[in-house]
Amino acid sequence: MIKSDKNKSIINKDESTTVEWKQSLSEMDELIETAVAFANTEGGRIFMGISPGGKVAGVQIGKGTIEKIVNHIRQHTDPKLHPRVTVKHLDRKEVIVVEIKESHDHLVLAFGRPYKRVGRSTVKMTKDEYEHLIFEKHHDKLHFDTMVCKNASLQDIDPAKVRWFLEKAKEEGRLNTPGKVSVKDALQYLKVFHHSKLNNTAILLFAKDPQKFFVQSKIYAGRIKGTEGHDFLDTKVLEGTIPELRGGALRFIAEHIKKAVFFDANQRYDKWEYPLRALEEALNNALAHRDYWANGDIQLAIYDNRIEIWNPGELPKQLTPKQLKEKHRSIPRNQFLADKLYLIKYIERWGRGTNRIVEEMRKEKLPDPVFANNSGGFEIALPGPGRSFEKAIEDTKLHKLDLNERQKKVMSYLRSHGEISRKKYAELSRVSLRQANKDLGDLLKKKVIVQVGMGRSTKYQVHD
Length: 464
Fold this sequence. Notes:
By secondary structure, the protein is an alpha+beta fold. The protein folds into 4 domains: 5-137, Methyltransferase, Cobalt-precorrin-4 Transmethylase, Domain 2; 144-212, no CATH class; 219-383, Heat Shock Protein 90 (2-Layer Sandwich); 403-462, Arc Repressor Mutant, subunit A (Orthogonal Bundle), CATH 1.10.10. The chain has helices spanning 5-11, 28-39, 65-75, 127-138, 159-171, 183-189, 200-206, 242-256, 276-289, 335-343, 353-363, 388-400, 405-417, 422-429, 433-445, and strands spanning 19-22, 44-48, 77-78, 84-90, 93-100, 109-110, 113-118, 121-124, 193-194, 197-198, 219-224, 232-238, 259-263, 268-272, 298-302, 306-312, 370-374, 377-383, 419-420, 449-452, 459-462. It has a 6-stranded mixed sheet, covered by helices on one side. Strands 1-2-5-4 form a 4-stranded mixed sheet, sandwiched between helices. The radius of gyration is 34 Å and the shape is elongated. Residues 1-5 have low confidence and may be disordered.
C-alpha cells in the first residue's frame, strides 16, 4: 500500500474502477485489455511501476519507450485508442501513467475482444452484453414499428380486428375509409402492408396471436396486498393486440379498485376510486411509447394506496419527468404506431396525455401523479384516496340525493349501528311517527336504505 500522501494524491487512492497498477512493462497485453476496459466503462488511469501491494517499484524508461506503449495500444485496439502517456517521479523512481478516456459507445475491442471494468478487475464482456451495446448504438436508426415482421403473412391477421379498427377510427372522425374493402386493401390503405410484407405495427394491432411474434408484448398485472411488498392477491398475464391489452388491463383494474353505485328517483350514479380517464391515458401511454425492442413486459401493480404502471424504455432525452406536467411536445418512440393509435383516439398528437392525467387526478382532488424513469423504463404512479374514498362517496351521495338534515343525521347513525326502527328514527329526530314514516319512505324511494322485516319488527338498513 502506498504510504506517502504525495504519492497517493498523484496515483489517486487505491486500485478501483478507474485506477489500475502494473508492476512492469512486461505486462503490455494486460495493459491493453485494461485500457479497453476503462474505455468501455468510465475511463481511467494505469500506473506502470507500482507493485500489486501498492509499492512504488518504478520502471526503466529508455529511448522510444513511451512511443512504443502508445503504438502498441493503437495497434491492438479497435477502434484505435489514443492514450495520454506521461512520466511521474515518485520516491526518486519513474512511473508511467497511461490515461484513457471513456468511449462514447463502449464498443472498443482489445485483440478483437471486448472488456469492461468491474470494481478493481478487468473482465471480458459476454456476447449478450456486447450485442446489446451494438444495438444501443444503432437503436435510434431502427424503428421497430415500421420494420417488416419476418415470417408473418395475411393468414396471421384477424379480419374482425381490422374491421373493428376501421369502424372505431370512422366513429372518432379521424379516418374516412372507402366502402367495403378487403382485409388486404384495408391494410394497404393503413400502410401496414407493403410489397406483400406486414410490418410490426400490423401485428401489434391486428394479429390473431401477436405474442407468437413478440413475446414481450404483454402486460403483467398484479393486485398486491398492502402498500409495499410482494404478496400477491391476484395476478394475470394479459396477451393480445394493443386494444385487447388495454381492455384487459382496464377490466383487471375494475376488479380490484373500489366503486360506489347509488340512485335517486331518476338517475344512477357511479363513482370509482380512481378516475378512469386517467387510467386509460396511463395505459395508452405505456402501450404506445414502450420500447418494443426490450424484453420486459408492461407491469401494472395495484396497491392499497396507489396504482403503478411501468413500461420498458425511459423518456426520450429531450423530455424530463417534470416537463410532463407542463406544456411539452409529443416525442413518440414509435411514431408510426402512434399515428395509428391516434386514429382510434387512444393518443393525441400534441403531448397532452400526461397533462390530462394530471387534470383528471386534480379534478377528483387526488394527489398529482408521479412520473419517473425507473430501472430502464418509465413509470406512472397514481396515488389513491385511501380511506377518505368512503367519506367522499357518502358526502356526494347525500348532496346529490337532496336529503334533509334529519335524514343525514340518521344515515350517520346507520353507519355506526347498522340498523334503525321507525320509533328510534322519531326519537333521534324529535318528530312524530308519521313524519318518521314519511322520511323513511323517501329514503326507501331514493334507494339509500332497504327495509328488513315486517310489522312491528321492521328495521331499516343502508342500501349496499
